[in-house]
Write a sequence for this structure.
C-alpha cells in the first residue's frame, strides 16, 4: 500500500506577483495507460492527508490522482484573505491548467464544507465569529479537532493517535486556525455567489453523486442541497462509515467513486 509520504509531493506558486499564494499538493500517477484525472478536495479539519488510503488504489485503477491542500490548510500558505469558494476554486483551476498543464475534463471529488444547511451545526456560527475562536482554541488544537472526528465518525478507531498528531500539528501552525475559520467567515459571500451563478447560468449540468456514510448525520441534507444547484443528482452510501468516508472505509469510497465515474 502506498503511504502518504511515498506519494509525489510538490508546491506551486500560483501568482508570480504574489509569492504568498502557494499551494501544496500530492499526486499519484498510474503505472499504465491513464484513463483520466481525479481531483480530491479535502474539508475541515483536514488536509490532503485525508486521502492517504485512497490515492494509491485510485491511481492503480488507471487515474492520475491529485489532492491539494487548499489555501490556508495543510502545507499551503496562509494568506490574510481569499477564502471564498470562488477563490478556492480559482486556485484549483490555476493549479491544474497553468501549473500542471491539464487541459482535459477532470473528475472532481470534494469533501463537504457547505454553509447553507447549518441546523444543529453549532461550529458554523462559532467559526464565523471574529477573533474569538482563535483565542479559545489556541493551544488546544488537538482536543478541538478530535471532537469532530469522535462526534462524526461511525468508526473513530480509523483515526490513530499518529493521525491526530499530524492534523493537530498542521492546524497548530501559525495562522492555520485563522485561515480555517476564514473559510467559514466567507460563507455569506459564498451564498450570494451561488445564488447569482444559478440565476445567470442555470444549474450545473454535469452528473453529480452525493456520497454519504451509513452513519452520516442526516440533518446535513446534502442531497437536498445538491439539487438546488445541480440538475442530475444521484445518491450513494458507503456502509461502515460515518462522515469521514475516505478514512473510515477507504475500500468503499474507492468502489463508489470508480463506479460512478466509469458509468
Amino acid at each position: 500500500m502506498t503511504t502518504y509520504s511515498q506519494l509525489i509531493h510538490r508546491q506551486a506558486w500560483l501568482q508570480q506577483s504574489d509569492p504568498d499564494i502557494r499551494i501544496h499538493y500530492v499526486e499519484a500517477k498510474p503505472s499504465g495507460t491513464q484513463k483520466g484525472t481525479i481531483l480530491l478536495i479535502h474539508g475541515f479539519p483536514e488536509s490532503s492527508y485525508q486521502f492517504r488510503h485512497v490515492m494509491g488504489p485510485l491511481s492503480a485503477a488507471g487515474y492520475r490522482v491529485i489532492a491539494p491542500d487548499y489555501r490556508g490548510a495543510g502545507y499551503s500558505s496562509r494568506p490574510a484573505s481569499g477564502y471564498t469558494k470562488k477563490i478556492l476554486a480559482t486556485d484549483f483551476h490555476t493549479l491544474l491548467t497553468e501549473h500542471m498543464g491539464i487541459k482535459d475534463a477532470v473528475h472532481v471529488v470534494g469533501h463537504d464544507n457547505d454553509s447553507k444547511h447549518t441546523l444543529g451545526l453549532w461550529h458554523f456560527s462559532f467559526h464565523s465569529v471574529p477573533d474569538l475562536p482563535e483565542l479559545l482554541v489556541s493551544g488546544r488544537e488537538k482536543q478541538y479537532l478530535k471532537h469532530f472526528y469522535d462526534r462524526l465518525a461511525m468508526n473513530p478507531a480509523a483515526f490513530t493517535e499518529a493521525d491526530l498528531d499530524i492534523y493537530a500539528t498542521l492546524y497548530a501552525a501559525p495562522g492555520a486556525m485563522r485561515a480555517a475559520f476564514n473559510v467559514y467567515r466567507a460563507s455569506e459571500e459564498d451564498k450570494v455567489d451561488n445564488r447569482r451563478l444559478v440565476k445567470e447560468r442555470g444549474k450545473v449540468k454535469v452528473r453529480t453523486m452525493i456520497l454519504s456514510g451509513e452513519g452520516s448525520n442526516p440533518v446535513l441534507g446534502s442531497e437536498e442541497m445538491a439539487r438546488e444547484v445541480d440538475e442530475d443528482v444521484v445518491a450513494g452510501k458507503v456502509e461502515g462509515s460515518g462522515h469521514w468516508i475516505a478514512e473510515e472505509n477507504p475500500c468503499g469510497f474507492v468502489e463508489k467513486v470508480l463506479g460512478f465515474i466509469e458509468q
Notes: The beta strands are 8-13, 22-28, 36-41, 63-68, 107-110, 208-213, 233-238. Residues 114-119 have pLDDT under 50 and may be disordered.
